[in-house]
Amino acid sequence: MNLLAFDTSTERMSVAVRAGLAGPVLGFEGGGGAQTSASLIPAIQDLLAQAGLALGQLDAIVFGRGPGSFTGLRTACSVAQGLGFGSGVPVLAVDTLLAVAEEARAASGATQVVAVLDARMDEVYWARYAWSAGAWAASGGPLLGAPEDVQVPSGATLAGNALALHAARLTAEGGRVEAWPTAAALLRLAPALLTAGLAAPAAQALPLYVRDKVAQTSAERAAIRASK
């Protein structure tokens, strides 16, 4: 199974390619944000060349669909659509919070994970996942709210990129693991999701925003500063 995966939902860009299920994972990590639109395609081309794969030889194009940065999600979806339309390869959209949970499992062995990503505007995206019988199951979310609203069951691991930023406001009895939605995590998740029939035509490469509002007003920003 030949797979390309990428995530641009955060301030980090992550890209990976694997030729065959037993093949090595070739990866690239770089800066996200506005520069992603210019650097993602060259990174993909370089990794495909290293793997000796043409775009049409891929079995799926796997991408992080969100939640996350609006700009990053639009970039990921547009690139997935463009590559899919041009090659006829199906796309596989994966929740970024699920990728965080998988990254935490790989790093720490955690099987009960509350994944948390910084959503800016003094909020976080979060979801709960449980690993059993070789697969993840969602038990809540994805949701958007204040860090204090995150519900962490007893014994669950809190994982994500928002732990340091909101350390005092995210309460958990279990462990804490800094984790990001990496392309390597997407590659590990992809086989089971593809077997479950979740691949789709390129036109269905759509983002999962969760938040509808992009920015705060000046009054809202002032109120948040005053409350700290």
Q: Can you walk me through this structure?
A:
- GO terms for molecular function: transferase activity.
- This is tRNA (Adenosine(37)-N6)-threonylcarbamoyltransferase complex dimerization subunit type 1 TsaB.
- It comes from Caenimonas sedimenti.
- Residues 37-151 form the Gcp-like domain.
- This protein has two domains: 3-95 and 181-204, Nucleotidyltransferase, domain 5 (2-Layer Sandwich); 97-178, Nucleotidyltransferase, domain 5 (2-Layer Sandwich), CATH 3.30.420.40.
- Helices cover 31% and strands 29% of the residues.
- It has five helices and ten strands; from the N terminus they run βββαβαβαβββββαα.
- Helix 3 packs across helix 4 (183-195).
- The termini are far apart.
- Residues 215-224 have low confidence and may be disordered.
Describe the sheet with the most strands. 5 strands, mixed
Mean pLDDT: 92
Radius of gyration: 17 Å
Instruction: Give the termini separation.
Output: 50 Å
When the domains are counted, the total is 2
Give the CATH architecture of the largest domain.
2-Layer Sandwich
What spatial order of strands do you see in the largest sheet? Answer: 3-2-1-4-5
Regarding CATH, which class of the largest domain? Answer: Alpha Beta
Strand tally, please?
A: 10
Helix content: 25-40%
Strand content: 25-35%
Number of helices: 5
| Assigned CATH superfamily of the largest domain | ATPase, nucleotide binding domain
Global structural class: alpha/beta
CATH topology of the largest domain: Nucleotidyltransferase, domain 5
Q: Which overall shape is indicated by the principal axes computed on the Cα atoms?
A: globular
Low-confidence stretches: 215-224
Q: Give me the strand/helix succession.
A: EEEHEHEHEEEEEHH
